[in-house]
Amino acid sequence: MIRTHGHCAGHVVVHLPEARLLHLSDEPNGPCGAMHDANQLNIFGAVAQALTLVETGAVDFVTEGHAFDVFDRATAAQRLSTLLDHASALDDAAQGLLTADVDDVPAFVQAFIARCQEIGVSGANPNPMFFTMMAASKLRELGLVPKGEGSQQTWSRPVLEGA
To answer: What percent helix, strand, coil does the chain show, rounded to 5?
Structure first.
């Protein structure tokens, strides 16, 4: 077992060297990203490490928690490369939608969903609640903090003390 702490705290991937198999669990769960108790950078690192294991021939087969396929080396390399590209594209999409503050969260969510669809990212559960949680996670990952609650909530970059 390899502790990644990416998708959620305590998260692991399982490497079975004798079977030349790597099971990524929920690490490549599309744009879902890290839960509140984990770290998006760890997901990126786990997927990048998996790609290295595939490309160096240390792993012949890759499985995931939400994809019910066994990926051979060539397919796994393509899948993992695409996941890394999607992670970067989602960050770019969110950054492109940001102004100093996000005062209209529903509009941000709708624009983020549209960008996800353009990129071809849907995640394991592509419904409005899932995408809203995804967008809020992305705002948090980008360093914004929420203010207020419910429909009155806004997100902004924290003010630096002494600035």
So the answer is: 45, 15, 40
* Helix, coil or strand: residue 12: strand
Report the amino acid identity of residue 38: A
pLDDT tens digit string along 125-141? 567 777 787 788 888 88
DSSP, collapsed to helix, strand or coil, labels residue 98 as coil
Residue 13 backbone dihedrals phi, psi, to 5 degrees: -110, 155
**Whether pTM exceeds 0.85:** no
How many Cβ atoms are within 10 Å of 120's Cβ, its own excluded?
10
Which position has the token pair 């099971």? 23
Q: Which of 74, 96, 77 is nearest to 85 (CA)?
A: 77
